[in-house]
């Protein structure tokens, strides 16, 4: 059984360092989850003061990434603005959603970490320039799914046979030819008529609705079963909810490497040049035929 540490040897050594730096924190993050389940500034069930879990997770991951000495800039949901490596080291820009789906913490539903890796001179660049993207899913089974051009999409499973490393679960993952599921974000009363038309079409095709409220979990199920994840434009909120740079771009990169497609209702999300690290975008990810149909509905 191949371990993650062995698998990343195929990659550029600096890129491998970024993946393993985040992967090595899983136990620490996982064991912290029950201690920081409530709101920041309150006491947890163990009577300890808590700092919000997403802030704590951000600090832990940022520290580990900076220590690799290969990261030049970090763009994180929790930081507001890009953070430059104070030592002036590094060539990579890493985008980070440290705890995606944080509203699921209290209810104990899925959440995860999303990372995108760029190697351009400019900090804010289009998603198609990513060299790698990966996510951690802190589910009943903790997994790490990473994609590069060279390796395709691979899923690693934590703790197999008691080891601290991750072991290969699924190699070179591809979306099934026919999609089964759809995860539909936003309140249906706020959906645009064009999107309602698409949803009617997909329902008539027999797709089932499954939505958990964490991008990582809702995307992960599409990777397995095929179909579409959407957080669409909404009436009164044309940019939807999810962030282009730290959320939509890494998952769009992964879905393309798995043979699927992404859209912002006009074209590929990966072609959009960001102007703000925090900008939002409508996002749809899944099987190519469904994304094509979605764009037809919006034309
Ligand atoms: O990061 C934002 C996020 O929590 C995503 O993980 C998820 O896809 C979305 O928001 C859920 O939003 P809503 O609560 O509106 O369904
Ligand atoms: Mn998120």
Question: What do you see in this structure?
Answer:
- This protein has 299 residues and is of the alpha+beta class.
- The protein is built from eight helices and 13 strands.
- The chain has two domains: 167 residues, Fructose-1,6-Bisphosphatase, subunit A, domain 1 (Fructose-1,6-Bisphosphatase, Chain A, domain 1); 118 residues, 3-Layer(aba) Sandwich (D-Maltodextrin-Binding Protein, domain 2), CATH 3.40.190.
- Helix 5 packs antiparallel against helix 8.
- The N and C termini lie far apart (47 Å).
- It is globular and about 50 Å long.
- Bound molecules: 6-O-phosphono-beta-D-fructofuranose and manganese (II) ion (MN).
- The site of 6-O-phosphono-beta-D-fructofuranose has 10 residues, from helix 6.
Topology:
Elements: H1 4-7, H2 13-23, H3 26-32, H4 53-67, E1 71-76, E2 83-84, E3 92-100, E4 112-118, E5 130-138, E6 142-148, E7 152-158, E8 166-170, E9 181-184, H5 193-204, E10 208-209, H6 215-225, E11 227-231, H7 244-257, E12 261-263, E13 283-286, H8 288-298
Parallel strand pairs: 1-3, 9-10, 9-11
Antiparallel strand pairs: 1-2, 3-4, 4-5, 5-6, 6-7, 7-8, 11-13, 12-13
Helix pairs in contact: 5-8
């Amino acid at each position: 059984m191949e371990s993650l540490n062995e698998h990343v040897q195929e990659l550029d050594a600096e890129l491998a360092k970024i993946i393993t730096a985040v992967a090595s924190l899983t136990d620490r993050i996982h064991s912290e989850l029950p201690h920081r389940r409530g709101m920041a500034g309150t006491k947890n069930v163990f009577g300890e003061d808590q700092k919000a879990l997403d802030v704590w997770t951000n600090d832990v991951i940022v520290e580990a990434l900076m220590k690799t000495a290969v990261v030049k800039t970090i763009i994180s949901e929790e930081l507001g603005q890009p953070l430059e490596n104070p030592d002036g080291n590094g060539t990579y820009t890493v985008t980070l959603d440290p705890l995606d789906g944080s509203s699921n913490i209290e209810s104990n539903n899925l959440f995860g970490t999303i990372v995108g890796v760029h190697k351009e001179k400019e900090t804010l660049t289009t998603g198609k320039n990513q060299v790698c993207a990966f996510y951690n899913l802190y589910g009943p089974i903790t997994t790490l799914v990473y994609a590069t051009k060279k390796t395709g999409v691979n899923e690693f499973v934590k703790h197999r046979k008691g080891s601290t490393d991750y072991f290969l679960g699924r190699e070179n993952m591809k979306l099934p030819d026919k999609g089964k599921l759809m995860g539909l974000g936003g309140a249906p009363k706020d959906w645009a008529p064009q999107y309602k038309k698409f949803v009617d079409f997909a329902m008539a095709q027999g797709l089932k609705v499954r939505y958990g409220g964490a991008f990582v979990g809702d995307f992960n199920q599409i990777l397995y079963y095929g179909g579409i994840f959407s957080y669409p434009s909404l009436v009164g909120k044309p940019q939807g909810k999810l962030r282009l740079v730290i959320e939509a771009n890494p998952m769009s990169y992964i879905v393309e490497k798995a043979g699927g497609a992404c859209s912002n209702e006009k074209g590929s999300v990966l072609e959009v040049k960001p102007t703000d690290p925090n900008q939002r975008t409508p996002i749809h990810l899944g099987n190519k035929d469904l994304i094509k149909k979605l764009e037809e509905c919006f034309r």
